[in-house]
Amino acid sequence: MTGATNGRLREFSRRTAFGALGAGIVGATVASWPRLSGTDIPGRGDNSLSIAIMGTAADAAARQRAIDAFTRLHPDIRVKVQAIQAVDWKDFFTKILTMVAAGTPPDVVYVATEGAQLFADKLAHPLDEYLRRDAADMAEFFADVHPSLVEAFMYKGSLFQLPMDWNAANMYYNTTAFRQAGLDRPADDWTHVDFRSNLAAMKKARPQDFTPYYWTNRLFGGVVPWLYANDTSFLKETKSTGGDWLWDSFYANDPSRSLRSGGYQWLEPNADDPRVFESFDYLRGLVKDGLGVRPEEGGGSSLVGLFASNRIGTTPAGGYWVQGLHEAGMKENDFDVAFFPKRRTQRHQFGTAGYAIMKTAKDKDAAWEWIKFSSSREAMELIFPNPGTTPARRSMVNEALYKGKGPAHWKVFYDTLDKYPTTGPIPAPPQQAAVETALMKNVSLAVSGDERQLKQALDSMQRDLEIALRRQS
Amino acid sequence: MSTTTRHREGQKHTAKQAAPGAAPAQSGWHSQRLLAWIFLAPTILGMGLFTLVPIVASVVLAFFRWDIISAPSFVGFDNFATVVQDPTVRVSFLNTIVFVLVAVSLQLGLALALAIMVQEKLPSWLRTFFRSAFFFPLILSAASVSIFMRYLFNEQFGVVNWFLSLAGIPAVPWLTTPGGSAAVVIMVYVWQNFGFSFLLFIGGLASIPTETYEAASLDGATGWRKHVYVTLPLLSPTTLLASVMAIISALQVFDQPYVLTRGGPGDSTRTAVMVIFESAFQRLEFGQASAIGVLLMLIIMAITAAQFRLSKRFVFYQ
Questions:
Q1: pLDDT under 50 in chain A at which residues?
Q2: Is the peptide bond before A407 cis (omega within 30 degrees of 0)?
Q3: How far apart are CA A154 and CA A121, in angstroms?
Q4: For residue B257, cis peptide bond before it (omega within 30 degrees of 0)
Q5: N or C: which end of chain A has fewer CB within 10 A?
């Protein structure tokens, strides 16, 4: 009996020992397995300066060289970059706002024109006091950056961001398609009539599997540049007073000083302007005659591939396209870029982006140091090593940046601002998301039917914009 | 043996087990009950935390104005009044109802027809293949499928129009006209979702006793009459379940129209859930978004209740 009991005990102990060993191995493996935890979220669990950018983990890694250089200058400030993947800027801002709601806002956010006034109105801290304090350090930056870009970040007389990169809507064209149609490079002052005749020539030369003009339905590069070229917009553009402190400090001798203000304002809809009808009617004509596509909703992610495979003749885009076309296999002479065609004016549209300090930032002084450093030539060269965008510094838009990638007339990018100083940002009031939805939802209908449908679509746009601007105002 | 008989026998069986000692049986009943609660606890907790609390929060929020950033302020029924007057909201609800009518009819019709075909006409190995093949789209991400479909249905360069061009048919503006975009959204949705109804119908068909068909054959019912007089009535509980689930799912459609058309052109493919998303996450009107959500929830509840009420007339249990 005793022996039997002892035997069971021995057996039990051995089984227990094996079990414990097994559990130990599993436990140790699980414990040592690399995994994410709450403390991996940038800025959580330490006092690092957390910076949110739109992009992938690779984009965050690409910032690492800039962070390293910054840390050498400011060893006391720890920086963490958090890349947030998003379909577009609207989606990115949504995610930032969700972080705000969750009580974990970043300290600094990379914000494009689309969200500049939303952040300035509700979330961001003005840079005025820092700029006044460090005016001597910042003079070199402003001397290298066009005032139009700076004005786009002015809101009610205060500056909320420093422009880091930007893109105007220029006209890209496929040089092979132009050559096949017997066309020369467009003149700098070509008009919308010239543009249409070029499209017709391309269509005649390549009737199959080719679209002379491809455009997407969105705020940047959609209908807006056509409206600007016709000296109008879908929102009434006014400017607020103030901001003299900045213009007098940094742009006193700039020839366009008198044009500058305390920031843009878009307070009323303008879709019932006859010039808006005129611009839409022009685009409707292109669609009707098969010279241009009905604009697709959403982003133009498929466009690079289609353009690179010579199936698109022209499309509006900014300097951000160069690297994409290069990676898609286009040689530097396969494409080129021209100014946007003229109508009543040759005013272009642009979008720009830069860092904004959040009102909730733990250490605003440290955040300013990061912004100041990021605006330096050294940092911008680290952050923008290739033509995936247009750097805000004029001196960086140079031969070296486009060497081996094209286009031949890369000077067009910065000349857009220098030659057309009234060039303005895309209309983006604090209610930008609602405004963009109201615009996009009516554009396709406006250009896809007859004149009556166009009139109805613009009436609908006017009504939708009124509602959009009333909201959250 | 009917379900009722089985249930009663089960009761008797339990009673017999409990009879010999009242106290132990009471204790066993208590421990079984405790065990049941322990096993149910994670589900109840999850449901409470992630379903019930958000529903209550959403209903409460519908009476507030809140943009995430500022503090919420009580506005009574203002949000409801605003959204009811908003033409975009009204159109989106109308679109959703039309979508439900068309998509659910197609989904159930297609699923039923294919289920009967697969169950009756095919050898078992092919049956297995088709069950998996038809269910496969359901496990794919709706957003990925929709991105893929955008390329397929591109007017200028899409594969669909290329095939049509081979037959001499001119390019169809699938995603840039109201009719075309609505058709594509419905097609993509039905293609992706009919597999679930198909599986339900396969299960329902398998549960119909072969003797019933043999009896119907003896009475002279063949071909489609067999399905009209035997299959459809006996499948009615499955049809009820499939239609309730399909309607609830279709009323909440979002991914396909959002990715394919962003609700356009115009408002032609804008759905109720899209308007909720746009109000909340793009315009930061969480109160109005909640109000639309509450209205949609009431509609779903009303439709489901009506379905169950009407089901008494056409659902037959064996």
A1: 1-11, 43
A2: yes
A3: 11
A4: no
A5: N
Q: What share of chain A is helix, strand, coil (3-state, %, to 5)?
A: 50, 15, 35
B262 and chain A: CB distance < 8 Å anywhere?
A: yes
The distance of Cα A225 from the centroid of its chain, to the nearest Å, equals 16
The residue type at A121? D
Phi, psi values for residue A351, rounded to 5°: -130, 145
Q: Among B250, B216, B1, which Cα is nearest to B106's?
A: B250
pLDDT of residue B29: 78
Q: In this complex, do A90 and B282 lie within 8 Å of one another by their Cβ atoms? A: yes
pLDDT tops 60 at residue B248:
yes
Amino acid present at A453:
Q
Angle at A292 between CA A286 and CA A297, to 5 degrees: 115
Where are any strands of DSSP class E within A15-138? 49-54, 79-84, 108-112, 124-125
The pTM assigned to this predicted structure is 0.83
Identify all chain B residues contacting A296, using CB atoms and an 8 Å cutoff: 154, 175-176
Q: Is B90 on the interface with A (CB under 8 A)?
A: no
Do B69 and A442 count as a contact with CB atoms less than 8 A apart? no
ipTM: 0.78
Q: What is the pLDDT of residues B131-172, one digit of tens each?
A: 899 999 999 999 999 999 998 998 888 899 999 999 999 989
Q: How far is B295 from chain A (nearest CA, A)?
A: 21
Closest CA to B61 of B303, B275, B276, B249: B276
Q: Do A97 and B156 touch (CB under 8 A)?
A: no
